[in-house]
Write a structure and sequence with these properties.
Layout (H helix, E strand, L loop, with lengths): L15 E9 L13 E2 L7 H12 L5 H19 L9 H4 L17 E7 L5 E11 L5 H5 L8 H6 L18 E4 L9 H6 L3 E4 L11 E11 L4 E7 L1 H12 L14 E7 L2
Parallel strand pairs: 2-7, 5-6
Antiparallel strand pairs: 1-8, 1-9, 3-8, 4-7
Length: 272
Amino acid sequence: MNLDLSFFTEPPERNHRASLEIIALAPLSMVSSQPGSYFRSEITPTTYMLLGLLENALGWHFDDKLRRTLFKVLQKHAKKKYGKHPDYANSDWLTAKPNESGSGFFSLLDFHLAITEVEVDQQPLTYDDLWSMQLRSKGENFIGGSRNYDRQLEGLINLSKQEDKSKPKKKNKHPYFISFGDKSEYKSFSLEKLLELKEGKVKTTSLKPYFPHYYSSPKTRGYIIPKYNYKYRLNCTSSLARLLELALSDPAAPLYLGSNDGWVEVKWINHE
């Protein structure tokens, strides 16, 4: 797949006018800031979400390091062409760092595209639901938080859920045949020894090689169902308009807003 980024090296003369209409095909959860225990959804998409949506249509899936490298290279190339031009020498396009969202995302489209709300649904249906968040931990959370692990451990995991009724209760429960932890009384075992173990205290590091490097944690997440479509006015360069119109007619990836299950359809309308 060839990525055409040449629009960035052209002056950001946003003379082309167009409109976007976004139709939600599923409930949307558009979280714009780092959440705590509750993922609060915005009522309307942020500018960064809209820019990310357009980048998905273009097939741009750059990690942060590559994105920053591309920005520096493109800005340097543009500066070589227009750095002495009186209209652009001191422009943000040639001199500024990219504008970033609260999560650190920035878009290569930013200087050459302006987005203005025309019509948005300010009173959508809202509700909360549980959402499975993927996390990493050096502790023991991965054991109870992941349904996936090496099948050889099935017997050991089953024993960790069975009470040993031959031993006295503690806090109204018999101790389990197998328990996991990180304290000094927990011991390390090889896989061979783990498979033979019928009872005991197992250090969590003994299990890490046989579990995914993440665990799932249920979080409360806000969702919205818009009653009306989102409508925006766009001003951009002509070359970028051609790229976006083509991309939205046949997107390189599924289009979504917020979480990746918030699918949307996007219509592009030219005004010139």
